[in-house]
Amino acid sequence: MVSTTVPYYEDFSEIKKKIWLMLTDAVTNRSSPFRIPVFSCGSEKDIESRIVVLRKSDEQNNLVQFHSDIRSDKIKLLEKNPNSSMLFYDKDEKIQVRLKVEAIINHNNDITKQSWEKTQHISRKCYLVDNGPGTESDIPTSGLKPELDNFDYTKEQSEEGYKNFTVIQCKIKSIEWLYLAAKGHRRARFDIDNSKDTWLVP
Q1: Each residue of 114-131: pLDDT tens digit?
Q2: 12-116+165-200 has CATH 2.30.110.10 classification
């Protein structure tokens, strides 16, 4: 009888391999559910969550990253408390991954310059708004001038948005993995800071 159990069902090494394969794929695969995780940050009194777009996966340095606007509310939250979490879920793979991370804010440095150069012309649009994300408005608005709203701008003009561009590097402190299976769910935690792998009750 052929086993239908996946290689990573009860193998720490295979689980880690699968997690990083999914994270790495999500950086370039727009259809991957892991491409748009939930990022949560805040304080003991107030936690805020939002969807972000995964822009980099670095297994060697246990790091993932996304982009933001330096004027965003989450920047202020991260300056006060860099401890954050990220939640990924793929319903087809039946895999949930939770990351506990330390968020590092990069603004106007070599890291942002490298990422900005790789950012498509069309994607720079959101950094050209006159006022930061979350600013109140009397009317429905994108925050952009009409000519920018219609993509009527050159790549050279888009450079104006660089001053607002921020790269948030998320240094992973621990990974928690959950696999849903009819045979029996499996759950594990990988404490990277202490190099400890542990099975958990799902």
Answers
A1: 999 999 888 898 999 988
A2: yes
